[in-house]
Write a structure and sequence with these properties.
6 strands; alpha/beta; 18% strand; 258 residues; 37% helix
Length: 258
């Protein structure tokens, strides 16, 4: 099964690449290190109110930050958060507290749920549209894209924001495969719209390369096909880095800009 989308913009934040453009410059697995300290000084992270920021772990800060940046530029109908690791560290900490017969912090408990980060985003942004949190182990990327496609084509949404984020579990003594955490903490996001069949004169599907040869309007759009079998289990960082897509210049006007 394959899904066709129009990609309007891509976002990425991590300790080793602060923007999607930074990620595109990284080759191989040279991003295999875990230092989140540099994100605290990023403008998009500092845009999160301090009291809310303190409730978020590193990947949560990144996820909310890219969501707010997308929300600032585009009218969004639905937001989808996808994470395999979710709030694993927070849950481990709570379980240790229980094991030690200690009290469980209500604040920590409320933040440990899988949709906690998307809830923080909705509070900060004032977003009242539909939000969904998904997790599907190694198929998490595929599940997020399937949900986006169903929202655009089945629910007739105009524009969907998909955010994939993971936290760094490398320091936890648990039998977790390295492939789950070798990218460290990160958040990536796509602003997606329904693919329109009439975008070319012959009504054919436009690949990323062919779209670049079209009009100036098409240069600001990217029509791509996501194959669930082929791409569903792909590592999100590798998938984003290998996308044949370049964000439009910031000076360009956004059709969906507020």
């Amino acid at each position: 099964m394959s899904f066709r989308f129009n990609l309007r913009r891509a976002y990425f934040v991590s300790g080793y690449a602060h923007t999607y453009e930074d990620l595109k410059k990284i080759q191989g697995i040279s991003y295999n290190h875990h230092d989140d300290s540099s994100i605290k000084d990023l403008d998009i992270v500092k845009a999160i109110p301090m009291m809310m920021r303190r409730r978020l772990n590193a990947s949560g800060k990144m996820a909310v930050a890219v969501s707010m940046e997308a929300f600032r530029h585009f009218e969004i109908d639905k937001v989808i958060y996808a994470s395999r690791t979710g709030e694993t560290k927070r849950c481990i900490s709570l379980l240790r507290d229980v094991r030690m017969d200690g009290g469980v912090s209500p604040t920590e408990f409320s933040a440990s749920v899988h949709n906690g980060n998307i809830g923080v985003f909705s509070i900060i942004s004032g977003f009242h549209g539909e939000t969904t949190a998904v997790s599907a182990a190694e198929n998490t990327l595929g599940a997020a894209m399937a949900e986006a496609y169903a929202s655009l084509c089945g629910e007739d949404r105009t524009r969907v924001l998909v955010v994939i984020y993971e936290e760094d579990l490398s320091n936890n003594i648990m039998p977790i495969p390295q492939k789950v955490f070798y990218n460290g903490s990160f958040a990536c996001a796509l602003v997606l719209e329904k693919w329109q069949a009439d975008v070319s004169s012959v009504g054919d599907f436009l690949t990323a390369d062919s779209a670049r040869g079209q009009s100036s309007d098409a240069e600001r759009e990217h029509y791509f096909e996501f194959d669930y079998v082929r791409d569903g289990c792909t590592d999100p960082v590798d998938f984003f880095r290998d996308l044949k897509f370049a964000n439009p210049d910031e000076s360009d006007n956004h059709d969906g800009k507020r």
